[in-house]
Amino acid sequence: MPDVAGQVSRALRAVPPDQLAEAADRAIRVALNATRTEVLIADYRFSGLCPLLDPELPDAGLLAGQGVAQRCFSSQQPVLDGGEDGRCRVYLPLSVWGERLGVLLVELPASPAAATVEVARDIAGDLAVALRAADRETDRYRRARRRERLSMAAEMQWELLPGRSFTHGAFLLAGQLEPAYTVGGDHFDWSVDGDRLSVTVLNGTGSGLAASLLTAVTVNAMRNARRSGGSLVEQAELASDTVFYQHRGSRHVATLLFELDTRRGRIRAVDAGSPHVLRLRGGTVTPVPLEQQLPLGMFAETRYDVQEFALEPGDRLFVVSDGVYAAQPDGQEPYGERAMARAMRSTRLQPGTEAVGTVLRELHAYHADADLRDDAVVVCLDWRGASQPDDACEQ
Q1: I need a labelling partner for 303 at 20 to 30 A (CA). Which of 11, 125, 287, 352 fits?
Q2: Contacts from 336-345 at CB under 8 Å and sequence distance 24+?
Q3: Verdict on whether the full-model pTM lies above 0.85
């Protein structure tokens, strides 16, 4: 078979960033003799898949979160769907280093050979990389993701995110913000560098634009320290001093910072406030005991201490903000008393990318599907086991 994937990749590089879907459509039709293609982009809530080429596509099975496309997106595996007319629709995950962007649909005149499916999967991988790179140069793909208008605060929060999932030889990491279209201050950030994974989860103070601005200052202060080679303590202390000298103690940010050593499976953490850490091990959910220190920005020149704990292969960690564990709708007991642990236990057979959605869906159900009263963030870390020096990131 000729270099079909290479032909499509070259076609993607030759067009403006807002024309990737059309370029892929033309190239795939020629290269694979396809009768139709569609690029489906995951919405902000991961509740559906939004079509780029045919925005008028009926909602049934795609935007309602059902059907073959959603199964492909959830499993991150190709799914073949044969029709009565003999044609075969091949659904392929669009993902980059584990970050799930959407699904590529390729309709072929007949059921394809395994080699053709692999070629189509390579094409989907190239398209995903191109979409992620193009996202900074055009609004088209972000516009397609939204089912309603974002608040100004939410626009800033989504711009600040590193992504919503990441896959590595030693771990899988995923996170989600709610309410997706109006989130204010809660946030998460992560970065991988060699054998170190750095993660921060912020429980923002206040609401709306003021909360988003405070979170942006805090996140960028920690990034500044981290990118300058600063330790966890230096990240926390720079962010704390930055917030304090901006607000003189009237505003502060509860934050959890941790680093995972992927060679040894050990976590070093600075607990500066209220985000909670829970561990799912063997079907049992238990809190990870960490000594809470002062939130960032409460006092000048606050000093922080590092705590450590070990992971075992198969451990799943959840980090949640108080909008999750302290949620108490209509006089019920807080979600974190019992319902949250039940939701976490129910995820044990799901990948972490699905687990965050399960916990948040159960939180919405606990609110009787009413709007959440507070921002909520859930981050999930699946520890697979210590990586070897030559472990490579998976795509």
Answers
A1: 287
A2: 336/276, 339/366, 340/278, 341/278, 341/285, 344/278, 344/280, 344/285, 344/316, 344/318, 345/280, 345/283, 345/284, 345/285
A3: yes
